[in-house]
Description:
Layout: E1 23-24, E2 34-36, E3 38-41, E4 44-46, E5 54-56, E6 59-61, E7 64-66, E8 74-76, E9 79-81, E10 84-86, E11 94-101, E12 104-106, E13 114-121, E14 124-126, E15 134-141, E16 144-146, E17 154-156, E18 164-169, E19 174-176, E20 185-190, H1 202-216
Parallel strand pairs: 1-3, 2-5, 3-6, 4-7, 5-8, 6-9, 7-10, 8-11, 9-11, 10-12, 11-13, 12-14, 13-15, 14-16, 15-17, 16-18, 17-19, 18-20
Keywords: Repeat
Protein name: Pentapeptide repeat-containing protein
InterPro entries: 5peptide_repeat
Amino acid sequence: MATTPHRAAPREFADLPYAHRLEAFTGELGRDGDHECVHFDGCDVTDADAGRTAFLECAFSSVAFEGGRYRRARFTDVWAQQTRWVGTDLAETEWTDAEAGAGLLAGVELHGARLRRVVFHHCKFDSVNLRATGLRDVTFVDCLLRDVDFAGAALKGVAFPGTTLERVRFDNVTVDGADLSGAAALGITSGLASLRGAVISGLQLVELAPALAETVGLTVKEG
């Protein structure tokens, strides 16, 4: 799947090239599973142990994941709409050519994960651990990122058009082409010095000026 333009509209279920091949999910999720062309629709999945499970060309519609362990699971060419992940362990997972819309991630562990060509539309991230993740060609469109920790992450080709950042941490990140200029708000708690190479707007520069001055040790004296 080609990289989605920053503000392209999210796809509908019927737009998926594999929609006609999807089969309804039955049974339970377990470790080392292999799910191809499966439609998870209206499911409530609680405390599943599904580490190393592979999801290929799958769709998730109005699914609620409560808790559970999915470490090292792989999500390839997946689509999710109105899907909730709450208190879920998604550490070291791999996401490739994925799209999520109107979703929620709250108290989720994503540290060490790898995301490539992933688009989030109108999603809410609340207290999500993205430490040491690798994000390449990832776009957050009109999202809310609150208390999200990117410490030690590698950001390459990442963009935040229309997205609000609140109390977000970027300590020791590696930046290659990250674009923050379209963000609706830049509430960055720490790690400004690590954003060397990122793109911001002139207005954002003015708003960040006090924090930047403090970061480099400048004292601002009036008059």
